[in-house]
Amino acid sequence: MEVVLCTLSSLSRRAMIREQTANLKFLAKLGKTPSKSFAMLQQVYGEETMSRTCAFEWHKRFKEGQEEVEDDAWSGRPSTSRTADNIKRVKQMVRADRRLTVRMIAEELSIKKDTVWSITENLEMRKVYAKKVPKLLSKDQKQRRVTDCQDIIERFEDDPDLLGSQYWR
Questions:
Q1: 11: which DSSP letter?
Q2: Best CA proximity match to 2, nearest among 96, 100, 98, 128
Q3: Which of 1, 22, 126, 128 is buried most deeply by CB count within 10 Å?
Q4: Which InterPro entries does the record cross-reference, listed alphabetically (predicted)?
Q5: What is the pLDDT of residues 74-122, one digit of tens each?
């Protein structure tokens, strides 16, 4: 039997940066120095901490009176890859073949891998061995699991030595 372990971040990268920014705002209002604030962020977030430069810039903004924790709107051309049509197509592709990689989807749809990754995050899909799968089970999948578990329980009740004593030593 093969066991697959995967760690899931409870927050997306953007959400984590937003949370760190809110924490920086709090620390700046408490009068903490930028260096002390950054050290506290590192203590909590470890390797996921925003860069020192960003932390100092945000600290400065909050000291100057900025209240918003969202970054300013970027100038330039808006994204044209992240359309409702592309989101729908990514979802259909993953549902049709869950073994597709981000690279394969990106090549098929002629969009960037980062865009595909972002779309799948928003569709609440996660990476398992470089493949995307739905995070939530469908009703049929849930029922199948219940049925399979009930079958295993019935087999074990009929034959308590089903697994053999060699596994319990």
A1: S
A2: 128
A3: 126
A4: Mos1_HTH, Transposase-MT_Hybrid
A5: 566 666 677 888 889 988 888 888 788 888 888 888 888 888 888 887 7
The H or E element spanning position 164 is: none
- What radius of gyration do the chain's Cα atoms show? 23
Closest CA to 21 of 48, 55, 46, 65: 55
We find that the CATH architecture of domain 84-134 is Orthogonal Bundle (1.10)
What's the mean per-residue pLDDT of the chain? 79
Q: What is the pTM of this model?
A: 0.40
CB-CB contact of 33 with 25 (8 Å): no
The C-alpha atoms of residue 124 and residue 92 are separated, in whole angstroms, by 14
Q: How many CB atoms lie within 10 A of CB 105?
A: 23
